[in-house]
Amino acid sequence: MSEKLNLQMVTPYKKVLAEEVDEITAPGTVGEFGVLPGHTPLLTTLKIGELSYRKGTEVFHVAVNWGYVEVEDDNVSVLVETAEPADEIDLERARAALGRAEEALRQLSPEDKDFLAMQAALERALIRIQVAGRKGGQGH
Predict the structure, then answer these.
(1) CB 24 within 8 A of CB 53
(2) 81 and 110 belong to one structural domain
């Protein structure tokens, strides 16, 4: 059994990261879960949320948008629609997106076809703002 996890994170557009890490915490669709070396094989889905990973005493944060996680033999593959590390998030752009989503939701009813899309946009903006507040890679 390895003492590290090999983390690979990719979107349809690029490899976001490839790191050797000590621990991963991810936003599963049925709840947050953690992965340590020696974890049993797993295939599960992710929701919009914050994925974090620890290297030694440093904790890094990534805003993710729907996808999958596969864990096998200490290799963790994260396949997501989008992934933005904390230090790459444009906070002003995220705040503007939040404002647009809030305004759109005020004008829509839950029956409107665009309501769920705007709710998801709101959730993505909130997560991006939360993760951006963790810039620097340190701490929880």
Answers:
(1) yes
(2) no
Which residue range(s) make up the domain with 102? Answer: 88-132
Stated pTM of the model: 0.86
54, 71, 87 — which closes off a domain? 87
Same domain? For 81 and 98 the reply is no
Helices (H), the chain: 91-107, 115-132
Q: What is the pLDDT of residues 121-133, one digit of tens each?
A: 999 999 999 999 8
Burial call 78-108: b when 16+ CB within 10 Å, e when fewer: bbbebbbbbeebeeeebeebbeebeebbeeb
User: Where do we find the tokens 């340590």?
Assistant: 36
The amino acid occupying position 63 is A
